[in-house]
Amino acid sequence: MRLLLDTHALLWWWQDAPQLAEAARTAMLDPASEVFVSAASAWEIATKVRKGQLPDFGCSLSAFVDDVVRDGFNHLDVTARHGVHGGSLSGGHKDPFDRLIAAQALLEDMVVITRDREIAAFGCKVLW
């Protein structure tokens, strides 16, 4: 299974937080799963660190790229095709990060690990 982590799922994975659903954790640990982290998540985390919304994460920002690889995850770059699709998705979800992650999941045939029910409204397969 090809999994794409929503940003909160990645953060909770790194924090070993109880908020990460057990089904999500199990799927992420499954050796048969390919787990991807979008460049949109890097952008979202960096933006939130800059705005002071993730005060405990700032010192780890410089290690983001290496931490993704260390955990056995794959980086997923954002392409123009992803951007066009994300910007064109209909629906009321206004978060540009989530729209981009949804577009990537749809175009790359991935399941999104997210608790955000609005992502499924875009037609994405979700797991939580």
From TrEMBL:
<dbReference type="InterPro" id="IPR052919">
    <property type="entry name" value="TA_system_RNase"/>
</dbReference>
<dbReference type="InterPro" id="IPR029060">
    <property type="entry name" value="PIN-like_dom_sf"/>
</dbReference>
<feature type="domain" description="PIN">
    <location>
        <begin position="4"/>
        <end position="121"/>
    </location>
</feature>
<dbReference type="InterPro" id="IPR041705">
    <property type="entry name" value="PIN_Sll0205"/>
</dbReference>
<protein>
    <submittedName>
        <fullName>Twitching motility protein PilT</fullName>
    </submittedName>
</protein>
<dbReference type="Pfam" id="PF01850">
    <property type="entry name" value="PIN"/>
</dbReference>
<dbReference type="InterPro" id="IPR002716">
    <property type="entry name" value="PIN_dom"/>
</dbReference>
